[in-house]
Amino acid sequence: MADLLFVAPGGSGAAAFLVTASSTLQSRTPSASHAITALHLNAATRAAVDAAIRSNESLLYFGHAERDELGDAPDIVVDLTNVGGVSGVIVAMGCHSAAGLGATFHGSTQRAYLGFDDLIRIPVFAPNRAIEAFEDGLTPLVAQAASVADARDALDAELIAAAGDYLRLRRRYGITDSEALDARDMLRSDTLALVASGATARSL
Question: Mind listing the pLDDT tens digit for each residue in 17-63?
Fold first, then answer.
């Protein structure tokens, strides 16, 4: 059994919707396979994350991020000073961090990182097909023992499918043709920034 830490601080824009993705994936994670700690919204403090990292093998983060940190300044929950405490996998659903934090996992035979190495944009129309893509793309990782590499491919496929759905089913989502094109382009661009590094053949 691997212990998993879910962290979703919330915040502005898409970060607020990513809390839902974290909660959904937590609910899809079989308790027989993983013990779970969840730090959402105000519970997602640096002190709480530091304490939880020591007792959890892998971290799944949903929210704002920069190259070398997870969080929205001044509320940074993971950076170069504590990322080494994660002995397993980091899944970071936020901008940029795979280029910095993720680079510390390169060449590792034990640890893996799945995230984005550039700016990502997530459409925030409701109902939110993009958030469903994050949930469904990562479900094989949390529920079916998929490898990090396979999870990267699954998430890529779900984001591409969501991009097509926004355009094809725009009336269902109540968006204009222009909004549908923007949503499609956002998600297609996001797939180009999706990176897996380190021991990507491992699962959680």
Answer: 999 999 999 999 998 889 999 999 999 999 999 999 988 999 999 99
**Judging by DSSP bridges, how do beta strands 65-66 and 69-72 pair with one another?**
antiparallel
Longest dimension (CA), the chain: 48
Residue-level pLDDT at 74: 86
Sequence-distant (6+) residues with CB within 8 A of 71 are 9, 46, 63, 64, 65, 77, 78, 79
Backbone angles phi, psi at 79, to 5 degrees: -150, -165
Long-range Cβ contact pairs of 181-184 (< 8 A, separation 24 or more): 182/123, 183/123, 183/125, 183/130
Side-chain-side CA neighbours of 182 within 13 Å: the count stands at 10
Helix (H, G, I), strand (E, B) or coil at 5: strand
Query: pLDDT below 50 — which residues of the chain?
Result: none
Give me 117's structure tokens. 């190495």
* Whole-prediction pTM: 0.96
Residue whose tokens read 């990502």: 120
Which of 26, 7, 139 has the alpha carbon at shortest distance from 76? 7
Cis peptide preceding 123, ω within 30 of 0: no
| Rounded Cα distance, 154 and 141, in Å | 9
Question: Which two three-digit tokens encode residue 48?
Answer: 């709480």
For the chain, what's the residue count?
204
